[in-house]
């Protein structure tokens, strides 16, 4: 921990390994800028996967209500799960800001968080609050039912496979913005379609499915727009279903993932909804906010305007 320990202070949760260890390499610069901009804080460094969940829960229990994430989308996801799995205060009493040091930074991209540290900290000091939706997903891990909260996007099928391979490489020390893209290309040669039974607010959709995305935010995979029309405070998921497409057709459509025109493709369907149930044969796997989880059967629900975040509000519109 650093600085004084008054409960009015910010808790800065730092992932030292984020962005090829930028979290620890750049901490002296980041902490100096926080002090320069008059932000009083204590700092906590994560030591393992899921540690940020525990640190957040403990800090809230001790009376802290304001958090700054120094990390990537995965660290943000863990802090959010810490907020939603504590019972000391309603989640709307918590404020979360971010200084992005990860590789994807898709939540920060949606909410206008600058990559430049000083600009990001200036944004934090301005304190513009946005009340955003939060997703909750129930899924299976083997025979056990698990639950996870998320604030950006969930992916199933092909997307989950790409994220799983990307995370494996990150765990081995590989990094870079192109990591997700190259795993996307590589995974095309091994992935098989899944027969899915999807129910969106009572509407039943049966498909041979390539990939499914459910977005509160618009970006994933380091800037791809799989849910380009998502609005983070409308109380709805934006759902994109990519149906059975030939591999060559998918490769030719990759540009559409980046320029926001993905939904123009005739084999891609878009929906919105609050409650989504997904079953499949064979099992379809899941990732949320870039974190690999379990498999179907899966159910999503949304908690509207349930957590306060600091952002560039103009960037969201």
Give an overview of the whole structure.
About 30% of the residues lie in helices and about 35% in strands. The protein is of the alpha+beta class and about 325 residues long. The protein folds into 2 domains: about 10-125, Rossmann fold (3-Layer(aba) Sandwich); about 135-305, Sandwich (Tumour Suppressor Smad4). β13 (about 285-290) and β14 form a beta hairpin. It is globular, with a radius of gyration of 19 Å.
Measure the end-to-end span: 37 Å
Please provide the count of β strands.
Answer: 14
Second-tier CATH architecture of the largest domain: Sandwich
Low-pLDDT stretches: 1-5
Radius of gyration: 19 Å
Main beta sheet: strand number and arrangement? Answer: 6 strands, antiparallel, barrel
SSE diagram, text form:
Elements: E1 10-14, H1 18-25, H2 27-36, E2 41-45, H3 51-61, E3 66-71, H4 73-84, E4 95-100, H5 106-110, H6 117-126, E5 129-141, E6 144-150, E7 153-157, H7 158-171, H8 179-187, E8 194-200, E9 203-215, E10 237-243, H9 247-252, H10 254-259, E11 268-273, E12 275-281, E13 285-288, E14 291-310, H11 313-316
Helix pairs in contact: 3-4, 7-8
Key terms for this structure?
single chain; 2 domains; six-stranded antiparallel beta barrel; Tumour Suppressor Smad4; 317 residues
Short description:
The protein is α+β, with helices and mostly antiparallel strands.
